[in-house]
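Please review this one:
***
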Amino acid sequence: MKVKYLVALVSACCASVSWALEPFVVKDIRVEGIQRTEAGTVFSYLPVKVGDTLDDEKAATAIKTLYATGFFKDVRLESDNGVLLVVVEERPAIAQITIVGAKEFEKDKLKEGLKQAGLAESRIFDRSMLEKAEQELKQQYLSRGKYGVKITTTTTPLDRNRVGINFQVDEGKTAKIRKINIVGNKNFKEKELLNAIVLRTPGLLTWFTKEDQYSKQKLGADLESLRSFYLNRGYLEFNIESTQVSITADMQDIYITINIVEGNKYTVSEIKLAGEMLLPEAELRKLIKLAPGDVFAREKLTESIKLITDRLGDDGYAFANVNASPQLEQEKHEVAFTFFIDPGRRVYVRRINITGNNRTRDEVIRREMRQFEGGWYSTSKINQSKLRVDRLNYFNAVNIETPAVPNATDQIDVNVEVKEKATGAVMFGAGYSNMEGLILSGSVAQDNIFGTGKFVNLMVNTGSVNKTYSLSYTDPYFTRHGITGGFDIYKRVLNTRSLSSVSTFNTDTTGAGLRFGIPLNENDSIMTGLGIENTKLDLGPNSPQRNIDFVQKFGSSTINIPLTLSWRRDGRDSAIWTTSGTTQRVFAETGLPGGDLTYYKLDYQLRWYYPLTNIFTLMLNGELGYGDGYNGKDLPFFKNFFAGGNTSVRGYNISSLGPRDASNRTLGGNKRVVGSIEILFPMPGMRNDRSVRLSAFLDGGTVFGPGGTRPELEGMRYSTGIAVTWISPMGPLKVSVAQPINNNPGDNLQRFQFQFGQQF
């Protein structure tokens, strides 16, 4: 058989080839040399069909096309009496990838990174991709400070034209920042400047925070923080001249040098307004936080621009542009600013789009929106809408964007994106006491049923002290005006025998009630309720005389008609991650005449949040409670206030503070005082995670009232410690470790406490 070679071999770089070929008509096409690739795949890429006339140009194009698929490392075209033979040599396939010696990263994540670099099992092996993947793997380690990492790659041929790839990783030690030098500072000590940045030398917590590990991104962020430090203190001409990062020969120690020029400190000499001022100048000037004579601060300038932009946004000017132009007087070290105002066109909202709510219905979110479709755009209404959706507590995150409508100069859309969280959960509470051991409780709840925004809660609390079985229903929009309606059916059993700190008695209460809530404005609402309940009492053998006298007077079974009235104000900036604002709550309960019990209880709580920095938030909490009887009757002892535990004074056992009997058991009281000072901050190394928050706290509080026989154990108690709150998918987890400050030998302590889930 006479065979004429049309093409011997064409390199991957597609070198020029000289052809000596007489064109011929292709009668048939055969593929030889394939093992894994289907012949049909070759035919689909081959730009030559039966009946075509093959010449030099078409042959070259065919070879280049088959090479471009990446399937083959050698391609030849031969002819045999009009039959075109396509002879290929396949590239091997990757059968397996193994990574040995990797400890810093999970192997699955490393393989995912290799896959993004083009290297994965079952893919065609390409040595250039292997080199690229090896560099990508090395970069992952360099980002963690592993500058001494060594990666050895071996390729092992396997049967059926396959290969196995092994990455042998020698991670080495993590390089640490040994010294950060700031050169050129004259007005501030180096220590003060180092406190303004994140990168630092090894310390007590850097093993966890990784702040002693260098990365280019971290250094860039720190340089901007350093710039902000100076610009917020008047140094308008501050400049970072250069930065040098060096590493020792053993790849273990990193040294950073930052060269700065502080410049002079500038004060503001004058503030001017220019441009199209749609608002009175006096109103605009009130929004500017800089005044003549003030030391220049960039953060105040930025805030002023935002306030003016937002104010114009309230009148529908969504694309207002405000620029502050500085005029420097270098000899006097003064700067004047001219605020140029361009309101742009007034726009209205075309459409509100909601995404991310796979479970919650659109109407549940839309009824919280204060910005309406077809209305003029308003920045404050957009912000208020976001806050109200946030406060629904159905979502982990709420984001609102306002893009312009294409081909329209006076319209925008409002895109609301939410990230839903679980609203039904099995919840647990637990604590450990040195006197009682492990204390467990639990409950089951379901909110936002079927995505309607209605609450249907079936609560089952089977704690050793409190047992609660209740069915609650709440419709937050019982009327279209936002009036809330609901009912409760419950059975509560209180057994204090297992509490060594509380006087022994049992109550078994069965009741039902109706509730209605009325919103007064965006932040204030009132709630009222009326119910009826039957309480059966069972006193222990060592009950105090006060409890015995009550049963003798009212009997062991009483009927109560409780009327409740409460007012709540919520002025927090966020219910998910609060940094500023206040919440207040006033709660009143009274037993109406017609029942066996006539009493009243008042309770007030105030929480105040204040941002100390962009990381730390101060939270102050205060609670006051008072109760008494009327119509010649006393406050029922089972309606007393109690204090102690992880919701009041941490470090002391639940309900263990206040008046006590001769057996050192808590009686409760008709007056309650509780307060706390708490510093909230993110988990180190998880600054952007809004589900975990740490705090350092100082708690104080107690209960006052008659009947105590051990006055030496009464009075205020204080504790201090640390706590962590995690909003987990199953519900909030709160853990605290507290050290009592002024405890007495008879106090019941509980230094470690945790609660998983909500309290009911």
Remarks:
- Residues 298-314 form the longest helix (17 residues).
- Confidence is low (pLDDT under 50) at residues 1-20, 431-437.
- The chain has twelve helices and 37 strands.
